Amino acid sequence: MRRAFKITAIKGRIEFCESERRQLISMVTRSPVNLAWISECMGSIEKELRFLYHDLEVEEKRGSEEWS
After folding, report:
1. Read out DSSP for 10-62?
2. Residue 17's domain spans which residues?
3. Domains in the chain: how many in total?
4. Which of 61, 42, 65 is nearest to 34 (CA)?
5. Interacting residues of 14 by C-beta distance below 8 A, sequence separation 6+
């Protein structure tokens, strides 16, 4: 049960990061913005997403191994 909660939390955070990324892309296409700031934010989001997808993969793999 704890692992399922952890997986759900990771997926929720991934969804939030994806939303932030879409919002930044939208800002770039609609108005003049500070591209350095956008680049910094996007880099941070991309880094967090890589870690989250890795954590999700590890947790799902552990969960499937426990059921085997």
Report:
1. HHHHHHHHHHHHHHHHHHHHHS---HHHHHHHHHHHHHHHHHHHHHHHHHHHH
2. 2-67
3. 1
4. 42
5. 49, 52, 53, 56
Please enumerate in sequence order all residues whose Cβ is within 8 A of that of 23, keeping only pairs 6 or more positions apart, or say none: none
Tell me: the pLDDT tens digits for 26-45?
877 777 777 788 888 889 99
Distance CA 46, CA 48 (A): 5
Token pair of 28 as six digits: 């770039």
DSSP conformation class of 9: H
Residue 26 neighbours by CB distance under 10 Å: 10
> pLDDT tens across 7-26, in order?
888 888 889 988 988 888 88
Do 17 and 45 form a contact (C-beta atoms < 8 A)? yes
